Amino acid sequence: MSHSIRRFAAGDRDPMLAFAKALPDHDLLFLGRDLQHPRVVDAWVGAIDEGFIDSLVAEEDGAIVGTAALVRDPLGWSPHVGEVRLLVAADKRGHGLGRDLLEAIFAIAAEHGVAKLIARMTPDQRGSVALFESLGFLGEAMLRNHVRDRAGATHDLVILSYDAGRVAASHQAFGWSE
């Protein structure tokens, strides 16, 4: 099956809730808020409308099978930094969907002039860590026992970062075009 990627639309609220509810709880720990809660999705839609989040959805047969978002705060002290959030349905992983979503987010980040990207995840999400590292993200921090799951167990959180200027300079030094 092939997928299509497009911008998140207000009508995606209920399909996004259905997508989030189908994800393993562990996949949601890095978000900071529970995406399975309707008020969280409503806030997400509001942040998209206000321009603080650029969000994409991947669809297959009319259902959301993945999403990526670039979260920015143009009014904060780090307007040059964007946080990348990526979620892919468990049965769609390992087929390039996450990479396609991330590459689309890179293009959106470039449009906004974002110089640094960060991504947060639990270190046991090896596939996600490997994907981000394959695209140039580097480990920057480990926050021990930083998130708590629904059962009360704590988990570490790793922060990866992508310095667009550093990567561009490296590509230029080796004669690669971006």
List the helices and strands and how they pair.
Elements: E1 4-7, H1 13-22, H2 38-50, E2 53-60, E3 63-72, E4 81-88, H3 97-111, E5 116-121, H4 126-134, E6 138-148, E7 154-163, H5 164-173
Parallel strand pairs: 4-5
Antiparallel strand pairs: 1-2, 2-3, 3-4, 5-7, 6-7
Describe this structure in words.
With 178 residues, this protein is of the alpha+beta class. It has one domain: Gcn5-related N-acetyltransferase (GNAT) (Aminopeptidase). The chain is built from 5 helices and 7 strands. It has a 7-stranded mixed beta sheet with strand order 1-2-3-4-5-7-6, sandwiched between helices. β2 (53-60) and β3 (63-72) form a beta hairpin. α1 (13-22) crosses α2. It is globular. The two termini are 29 Å apart.
Rg, alpha carbons: 16 Å
CATH evolutionary superfamily: Gcn5-related N-acetyltransferase (GNAT)
Measured by DSSP, the beta-strand proportion falls in 25-35%
Measured distance between first and last alpha carbons? 29 Å
Largest sheet: 7 strands, mixed
Oligomer: single chain
Helix content: 25-40%
- Per CATH, what is the topology? Aminopeptidase
By secondary-structure content and strand pairing, the structural class works out as: alpha+beta
Q: Using DSSP, what is the number of strands?
A: 7
CATH architecture: 3-Layer(aba) Sandwich
Strand order in the largest sheet:
1-2-3-4-5-7-6
Total of DSSP H or I helical runs spanning 4+ residues: 5
Kindly give the count of domains.
1
Q: How do the helices and strands follow one another from N- to C-terminus? A: EHHEEEHEHEEH
Give the averaged pLDDT, no decimals: 88
Shape: globular
Look at the structure and give the CATH class: Alpha Beta
As residue ranges, the low-confidence spans are none
